[in-house]
Amino acid sequence: MDPEFVEFCIAQGALSFGEFKLKSGRVSPYFFNAGLFNSGYAIEKLGYHFAKKIYDTLHPSEYDMIFGPAYKGIPLAVATSIALSHEFEIDKPYCFNRKEAKDHGDMGVFVGAQPKDGSRMVLVDDVFTTGGAKEEAIAQLSSVAKVSIAGVFIALDRQEKNEQGANSIKAFEGKYITKVHSVANATEIFDYLKGRKLGKAKKVIVKQDLYDKFLQYRKQYGV
């Protein structure tokens, strides 16, 4: 994990700490909102961190295209593709899907480079919850071409069981014969921030009581 990524997330307000009730009903000691990477600077920086993770994980010969599932994956695929070219001199096309096909103009469900038989896709998205949106996008891809998933890259791995008590990432990896990689995971973030003073104010964000709440949360819901 790159500590710069964590501090960037905090500075953008995308990563916050306290007490948050999630859609699942769980009460989490932290919350990650990728929708707050909503400026030119922020999406450029986020694209860089994804590109660096891809660069450190896969050789360019192992994948053909960057794919972002609608909707949050769309700007991420574009930003990652730009960062790969600008920062690492790796020029890869990008593609994203529509929720519904158009029947006029550039018809179909895909925008950008079109998937072909044999295309090896790198899929980028903000988080991994159940994997439903990713499976839906892969089904769309598979309906037009015989593609494979070279890797899935997400910003944050919460390292949690799904509502059925299963490890949804492991199930996804087994089904699609791929790996899910995260720029950071919850344990890395809390371990890095515990007792650390950040910013000009030298503020400690994760004190011992918050860290203990995280450990309890991980014990109850973690994988």
Detailed description of the structure:
The protein has seven helices and ten strands. The protein is an alpha/beta fold. The protein has a single domain (3-221), classed as Rossmann fold (3-Layer(aba) Sandwich), CATH 3.40.50. The strands form three sheets. Strands 5-4-3-6-7-8 form a six-stranded mixed β-sheet, with helices on both faces. A hairpin with a 5-residue loop joins strand 4 (94-102) and strand 5. The longest helix is centred in the N-terminal third of the chain and has 18 residues, at 40-57. It is globular, with a radius of gyration of 18 Å. The mean pLDDT is 91.
> Could you estimate the helical fraction of the residues in percent?
25-40%
Instruction: Please give the largest β-sheet.
Output: 6 strands, mixed
Write down the secondary-structure element order: HEEHEHEEEHEHEHEEH
Domain tally: 1
Structural class by secondary-structure content: alpha/beta
Order of the strands making up the biggest sheet: 5-4-3-6-7-8
Rounded Rg: 18 Å
Oligomer: single chain
How many DSSP-defined strands?
10
Straight-line N-to-C gap: 19 Å
Mean pLDDT: 91
Classify the beta-strand content into a percent band: 25-35%
CATH hierarchy class name: Alpha Beta
Shape: globular
Low-confidence stretches: none
